[in-house]
């Protein structure tokens, strides 16, 4: 994966953590022997499965050598309540999602869509969209169609990811997965319908009197790229062909998977909100850099949680990555180093928000970054 630019370099300074991997040693006693075994051979190969490469640099995170301790990070105002923000924003998103996909003929299709879409979830992606819109001075209502679309696409990815042909999971968000309730066939179609409707929802419901139609087209392009072969689908494909090949999977391939399978949609969530809010190009790119870092950190934390939390806490089957012999950040770097990578990415992401010089407006994005780092499921 030599063409994949801005990769994490295990032998150089990373995110200011100076985190060099020393041989094949794992100094984390809490990591099961299987974790260390999966990572030992992988660290010898800093490339990818079958020499996989990508010409895309859209989602690649450039990891700097600047010490994280030297970065100035905006402080969240003391009067900002993240709990209240989450409660109020999630409630508004829930209402919008419920209205977006009503029960209609054929009921089996819409009921399956609603079962997964309205079946809980943290609503991180819609919150990122709305928070980015408001940060740049926009009206959250202008970004709500995009926010709903992000959750629809995320839900589609979960429905498909849980299928027997993919990750084969029986539980999601603490209840039976869509295909366990409606069957594989309906689950596939429900996901397909949700994906296509997400684009329609943005195009039809983004207020044309408040958001320039050209900007709406930009949002649609951004989302389309994040979902396709250069985004979510591409990451999922490389993830699938990498299963059981831990000895061939190095840090470049792992970062490619995470940035495309997970971070791409988080990036699109933030950027679409900024675009709907009328941000200039410089502000959009600043928020893009923020989103790339929280996106990669999100998946690094996911890797950690997979081996440190139980199924009940996660709301999905724990230990799936180990069972599938997937390479993860803990398997390559160990738990402690993986935590440092996540922490440094979040610090760098938050530092990007200095551009806006308004900690009060930036508070939701700052707090969401902290949430992504410290979440338990």
From TrEMBL:
GO terms for biological process: isoprenoid biosynthetic process. CDD domains: Trans_IPPS_HT. GO terms for cellular component: cytoplasm. Signal peptide: none annotated. It holds the Pfam family polyprenyl_synt. One of its GO terms (molecular function) is metal ion binding. SUPFAM superfamilies: Terpenoid synthases. Pathway: Isoprenoid biosynthesis. Its cofactor is Mg(2+). It comes from the Eukaryota. Keywords: Isoprene biosynthesis, Magnesium, Metal-binding, Transferase. Belongs to the FPP/GGPP synthase family. PANTHER family: FARNESYL DIPHOSPHATE SYNTHASE. This is Geranylgeranyl pyrophosphate synthase.
């Amino acid at each position: 994966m030599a063409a994949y630019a801005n990769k994490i370099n295990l032998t150089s300074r990373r995110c200011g953590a100076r985190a060099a991997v020393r041989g094949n040693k794992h100094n984390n006693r809490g990591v099961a022997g299987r974790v260390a075994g999966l990572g030992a051979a992988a660290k010898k190969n800093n490339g990818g499965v079958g020499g996989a490469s990508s010409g895309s640099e859209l989602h690649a995170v450039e990891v700097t050598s600047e010490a994280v301790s030297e970065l100035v990070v905006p402080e969240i105002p003391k009067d900002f309540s993240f709990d209240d923000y989450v409660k109020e924003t999630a409630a508004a998103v829930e209402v919008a999602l419920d209205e977006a996909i009503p029960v209609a003929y054929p009921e089996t299709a819409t009921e399956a869509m609603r079962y997964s879409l309205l079946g809980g979830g943290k609503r991180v992606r819609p919150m990122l969209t709305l928070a980015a819109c408001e940060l740049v001075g926009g009206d959250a209502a202008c970004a709500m169609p995009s926010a709903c679309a992000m959750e629809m696409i995320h839900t589609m990815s979960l429905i498909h990811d849980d299928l027997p042909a993919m990750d084969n999971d029986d539980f999601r968000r603490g209840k039976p997965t869509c295909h366990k309730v409606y069957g594989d066939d309906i689950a596939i179609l429900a996901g397909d319908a949700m994906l296509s409707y997400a684009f329609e929802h943005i195009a039809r419901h983004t207020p044309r009197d408040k958001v320039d139609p050209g900007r709406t087209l930009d949002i649609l392009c951004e989302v389309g790229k994040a979902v396709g072969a250069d985004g979510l689908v591409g990451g999922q494909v490389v993830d699938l062909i990498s299963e059981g090949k831990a000895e061939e999977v190095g840090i470049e391939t792992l970062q490619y998977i995470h940035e495309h399978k997970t971070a791409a949609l988080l990036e699109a969530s933030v950027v679409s909100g900024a675009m709907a809010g009328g941000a200039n190009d410089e502000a959009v790119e600043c928020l893009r850099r923020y989103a790339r870092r929280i996106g990669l950190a999100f998946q690094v934390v996911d890797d950690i949680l997979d081996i440190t939390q139980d199924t009940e806490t996660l709301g999905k089957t724990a230990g799936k990555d180990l069972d599938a012999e997937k390479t993860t950040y803990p398997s390559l770097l160990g738990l402690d180093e993986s935590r440092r990578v996540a922490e440094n990415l979040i610090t760098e992401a938050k530092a990007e928000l200095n551009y806006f010089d308004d900690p009060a407006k930036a508070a939701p994005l700052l707090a969401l970054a902290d949430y992504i780092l410290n979440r338990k499921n």
